[in-house]
Each structure stands twice: as structure tokens, then as C-alpha cells.
């Protein structure tokens, strides 16, 4: 009888516990290498079409920026990449980026993720990882 009750409890526990989330869950939700690349390319189009934001990039090597942003989003979402660029503070100092710029870029990112059918839960997870960078990006 004791064995039976124990077995039943064990089954209940096993049934309730969900498998741990894989390290690259978010990366996969973003569409892995292809998805992250498309995300960055979509964002570049948005940046190009936003006169307020594009002005900050007038002297930027866009190919290098693209490569680094792909690396960064890949690493940040648990993918198999290592970000090789400067810190967010180093790379944004001197650009006088405002809170409005930051909010607009986030809006562009949400638009691109939605167009690429990234599930809302995954969108929010990525945004939560980017939000703390605010203090290093925005000029004060
Ligand atoms: C969380 C938000 C952001 C992330 C994750 C991010 C990420 C990056 C990365 C990875 C780089 C390349 C770093 C390097 O050159 O080593 C970069 C550069 C740059 N970012 Fe951001 N960025 C963010 C927000 C913004 C915003 C809001 C603006 C302005 C609207 C902006 C403008 C720039 C510019 C102009 C550069 C190029 C700097 C240069 O030419 O040297 N960034 N960013």
C-alpha cells in the first residue's frame, strides 16, 4: 500500500514538473541565425526610414554595425555567438541619443518582430534583455 501511494505521488510529481527551458529558447523563438539576421536587416530598413534616428548613423560603418548587432542579439538570446563589439556605454557615448530615440528604436524593433511573426512572449523576453541597456545608450 505504501509503495502504491509513493508511486502515485511520484507519477504526480513527474507529471507536474515541466522540462527545463533550453538555453537557446529565445534564440530559437527569434528564428535562430536566419531569424536574427532578418530581424537586424528589418531594423536597418526602419532606421533608414526614420530621419530622427538615421542622423545618428551618418558616419557609421553600417556593415560593421549590422554584423555586431547580429552577434549581440544572437548571444543575448542564448545563441551560439560571441559579441565582439564595444560596450554599450563606449559605443553610444557622444551621440546624444535621447529617450525618444530609444523609445522609437524599440517601437521599430517591435514592428519588425511582429512582421516576422515572433511570438509576443518572445518579443517581451528580448525587450526585457535590452531595457537595462537604456542607461548606457541614452545621453544625459
Ligand atoms: C538597447 C538598445 C541598443 C542596442 C542593443 C544597440 C546596439 C548597438 C551595437 C551592438 C552597436 C555596435 C557597437 C560597436 O561599434 O562596437 C551600436 C552602435 C551604435 N548605436 Fe546602438 N544600440 C541600441 C540603441 C541605440 C539607439 C537608441 C541609437 C540611436 C537612435 C543607437 C545608435 C547607435 C549608433 C549611432 C551606433 C554606431 C556608433 C559608431 O558608429 O561608432 N543605438 N549599437
TrEMBL record:
Keyword annotations: Heme, Iron, Metal-binding, Signal, Transport
InterPro entries in UniProt: Globin-like_sf, Globin/Proto, Hemoglobin_trunc
Entry keyword Heme: yes
Signal peptide range: 1-19
Top-rank taxon, per record: Bacteria
Protein name: Group 1 truncated hemoglobin
Amino acid at each position: 500500500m505504501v509503495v502504491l501511494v509513493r508511486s502515485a505521488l511520484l507519477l504526480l510529481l513527474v507529471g507536474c514538473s515541466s522540462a527545463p527551458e533550453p538555453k537557446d529558447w529565445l534564440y530559437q523563438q527569434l528564428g535562430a541565425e536566419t531569424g536574427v539576421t532578418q530581424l537586424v536587416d528589418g531594423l536597418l530598413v526602419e532606421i533608414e526610414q526614420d530621419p530622427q534616428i538615421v542622423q545618428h548613423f551618418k558616419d557609421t560603418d553600417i556593415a560593421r554595425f549590422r554584423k555586431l548587432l547580429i552577434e549581440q542579439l544572437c548571444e543575448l538570446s542564448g545563441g551560439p555567438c560571441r559579441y565582439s563589439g564595444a560596450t554599450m556605454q563606449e559605443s553610444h557615448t557622444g551621440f546624444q541619443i535621447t529617450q525618444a530615440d530609444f523609445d522609437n528604436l524599440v517601437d521599430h524593433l517591435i514592428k519588425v518582430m511582429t512582421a516576422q511573426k515572433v511570438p509576443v512572449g518572445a518579443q517581451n523576453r528580448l525587450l526585457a534583455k535590452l531595457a537595462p541597456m537604456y542607461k548606457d545608450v541614452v545621453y544625459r
